## 1
Amino acid sequence: MNRALPFTHPPHNLLIEPIVRHALEEDFGRAGDITSELTIEASARATAKLAARKAGTIAGLIAAEIAFRLVDPSLTFTYEKPDGSTVTAGTTLAVIEGPARAVLSGERVALNFAGHLSGVATATHALVEAIAGTKARIICTRKTTPGLRVLEKYAVRCGGGFNHRFGLDDAAMIKDNHIAAAGGIAPALARLRAGLGHMVRIEVEVDSLAQLEEALANGADTILLDNMSLEDLRRAVALAKGRAVLEASGNVTLASVRAIAETGVNYISSGAITHSAPNLDIGLDF
């Protein structure tokens, strides 16, 4: 089956640089890198390699490059593998050359971004591979590290996944507490349709087939099927008959994701790929 590819183009540097700059400011503190400044001659130069110490899917090298360039614009950062690459242990990802002090001062922040974001991409890629051959797509959620959403969602794309909404403003999503506070699915949908522009889509979260039928009857664009059994997911697909995009969510693991995809849902969302992805071990050596 031919599968559409996610939009993997990286965020603009205008979005990434403030995030990386803040991380460097946190690390440099009030006095800067006192160890490197006092132990290494200012004239000393170095060549260092960023390498994957474990197999995985790479993301975040763009942030690592910005980290080194912010420390010292004279540093050169040469990519050996681009973000989105799936690599084996020992693969060289990039080569950094320039003043030794600057390489060492930028090392930790660069590795923090590359390791964390590659962990997100690797976790995403594993789920994507597990559902190969089905029509379902793996998507992320808003369960991201505060301040890192734009980069974590980029890492999901590097892993072959797709993005759910980026924030509260780019799509409307009626969740269980909205339903309770608004007095039901129908009035919540009616109020949204009365106030939203024509470009904004509406998703409704449901946890029963009865709620699904109400959401369908009231014209929801997308319906999130929350923590439903496989049998209920199959019944939901049959009930919807293509009238709405269906997203399955809840308890998505490598062990369960294939069976969820085979129910016929369009999307499978996972918060774990961003909030619980293990760091991919990436090192820097002179």
## 2
Amino acid sequence: MKRILITGASGLLGLNLALQASRQHAVVGVVYHNRLMHAPFEQMSADLGSPDEVQRVLAFSRPDWIIHCAALANLEDCEKNPTRAERMNTWLPGYLAEQAGWLGARFLHISTDAVFDGETGNYREEDAPNPLSIYARTKLEGELATLQANPQALVARVNFYGWSLRGQRSLAEFFYNSLSASQKVRGFTDIFFCPLLVNDLVDILIEMLERGLSGLYHTVSSESISKYAFGLAIANRFGLDASLIAPTSWKEGGLTARRSPNLTLNTEKLAAALGRSLPGIKTGIERFYQLHQSGYPQQIQQLGEAS
């Protein structure tokens, strides 16, 4: 059993990670605003933008592993507050990586596929990034800060979806919620990505740590899809009206931050390290559906405090 510190433990990845990892390990989850009720793991409230707070968290948790999920992840918020984005997305992972090295703890930093400009796709780990937004730039700088401070650290570039605390944190939830309410939505036909179900991602991240991997890995689905087609796939599996999804260009979406059109990542490096391919699109959506049928979204949402 490992003692695992998970930052961003109320977020989509952090919460699912903490719930799954706590079945076999001792988990301490760090939350900022969204303190959880009746969570099956220890939790702390902290603003990790402060070195003193980071030290307090580390002293309390005494981790064997640190999995850093916390970030300023909203692209529009990063554009409006670049200083905060740099603090949370660049300084914090580098500082945590450094402290993990001093403590002798394994460190896993969660990064993003958005470090690429999306002009070509099928990006490998050795391909040169070209971030287009403040979010993407600060996340790339966070990767570099992590590996510079701690060469034995692990960095995973991800893109994921799943069931979240408020039911509103992932693209899959957006399509499910909107279509269930018979609302018309737009689906981008010109943005391609490799979405991985968060529960599958959690399993993979833990295995990467157990195997002692280090360095940079693309940790996404082995297959790619447009956001429009992804919406159609969700609609079809849940028996919802796919005609409510209007095929749209992202340029018509009224978004401030520039988007990368083809964020397909090559996962051969990680597949070789694990000895198997990463899950595909259909496999992930099927598990997403089965989790819904088992009442998992309601179980997660019950952990949130009443507002």
## 3
Amino acid sequence: MISRTISGILCKHLGLNKAILLFGARQVGKTTLLENLDCFKNQAVLYLNGDDADVREQLSNTTSTHLKNIFGKNKIVVIDEAQQIPNIGITLKLITDKLKSVQVIATGSSAFELANQANEPLTGRKFEFHLFPLTFGEMAAHHGFLEENRNLEKRMIFGYYPEIVNNPGNEEKLIKLIANSYLYKDLLMLENIKRSSYLEKILKALALQVGSEVSNNEIAQLIGTDNKTVEKYIDLLEKTYVIFKLPALNRNVRNEIKKGKKIFFWDNGIRNSVLGNFSPLNKRTDTGILWENFLISERMKLNFNKQQTVSSFFWRTTQMQEIDYLEEFPDQIHAFEFKWNVKSKVKFSKTFTSAYNVSEIKTITPNNLDEFLL
């Protein structure tokens, strides 16, 4: 059993008379996590699934008395796939306000559906957490840094979904199954999306542009649709934990890119599945791109797991001066460049270092990735 970093954090938030919301894509291990929490041992726990029709019927438009009868003597109630339940926000509010001896935990693979239903009713009554695919740090803790470092190329190609990690030898078949059968299930059900061909084309365009600035207008022209459609799909893909945006930092320098954005995938395996490319690194032309996506997504997951309050950016000027990744804290900035080739020489822009209060400048290669990811 691979221990998840967020486990201890969740346990510390039990019993505080707040609903706990756990967001994440399908197949990242939300159910497994909650079924194996140490703090659930010797506790009466009721597991319900919003994918079940009878659960949806019983938990929507209900009363506190009815809920009390459903929960019985269970003091912890886990509602999986809660976004499937109509009016789930009101139900969670009812549990929190009226059944104070019950700790409710709701999981959702569609963050925006559950968040939209829960935000207003649960104002001041919830803690929100995010679960992503496994991380380099979690795997290093599981079987040691050296062993995980030996798997680096495999992770860069097939990613960190638990089913992939736990079934060596079947990675390609399983990541295709996750990408095609699970990942977009909620996305295609929502917003009455029927033109899945647009989704596939936009995803492929984004996968090809990892590490580069993304223009909605260019993608729209490329696939034959309009700006608003591209923006809508990108927004939905972000809210269902397929991709995330990295904005451009612009504060002080006149020639900085003002509204630029890059888009990365939360998991390298999903990105490669979209492109249908699982070739080994020595036969690829995009190894540097995979390295950048791997490091940035892993760092973002690490910051989420540590509940680190940090703003992340890239930086570029119109003269093509660039820094791959920045982390901004209240009074300082950390700057990072990523190079797969350990012999590559990096020269950080003096324009940037003279304009910002930079406390750390570092190049991350396979030789020192532990300094960035552990």
## 4
Amino acid sequence: MTGTSGLLGLNLALENARNHKVFGVDRLPIKTDVFTVFQADLLQPGVLERLFEQTRPDWVIHCAALADLEACEANPSLAQQLNAELPGEIAALVSRRGARLVHISTDAVFDGQRGNYTEEDTPNPLSTYARTKLDAERAVVQANPEAVIARVNMFGWSASGKRSLAEFFVYNLQAGKPVKGFTDVYFCPLMVNDLAYILVEMLEKDLHGLYHVFSSECISKYDFGMRIAIQFNLDSGLIAPASVNQSGLQATRAPLLTMDTTKLSGALGRSLPRIAPAIERFYELYKQGYPQKIRGYLIH
């Protein structure tokens, strides 16, 4: 799997190393004996082919991306290279080598004007990040029609401590810092540890094509922050309800990213996880020292 220092990549590797032989690839150094790590820049010529020769994978889960929306606006050419062109190259290589691919995409491909989006709805990306991720979906389908494209939104503990909205609320509220919670932006985030198992289950069930892989319920970012504050016994009064239009962010955010997961729940034979138990698990991992443990994997 690629992007192993990221929120999804690292949790995906750690959760599935119990039952599978996992190779993780990242440009940053990672120190662990839980899975095998290859430090590599996937944009360098010949690197993809060399990694395939060394690992000979049955499955590839491509998580690596330039996921910082503001960074994508500041450097659109790099965003295009990392988010759109690289996935197409990986998809073609995986197809040639007879492996299976899961490509990670995003709910941000939609403009958020209507909500309750299904896989059949037409995307309309609003930011550089979203446009490049949609370009990737199209490149992957063209190069490897058998691939799984998983649109996701997630939260959890990351090695940097800065990769998820849940971490943002926890660490700022613990420091007594006031923050804004958007009352007009809705999303359906999955706990990354749940997502890690679901993606592998999709491969085990030999699924193909486009799937919405989200929580079965949706919530505003303000209400999400309030739930985090209550779960962690932090001062919810520090969270000010605000409109995303007051944020000063450069990248346009889609407001209503409520997603329909009927297709995937039908394929799996069950509903996707809900938010409340996911936040409880997020808190339980915190009490077990998981944030400190996961930070220790990244060599600074």
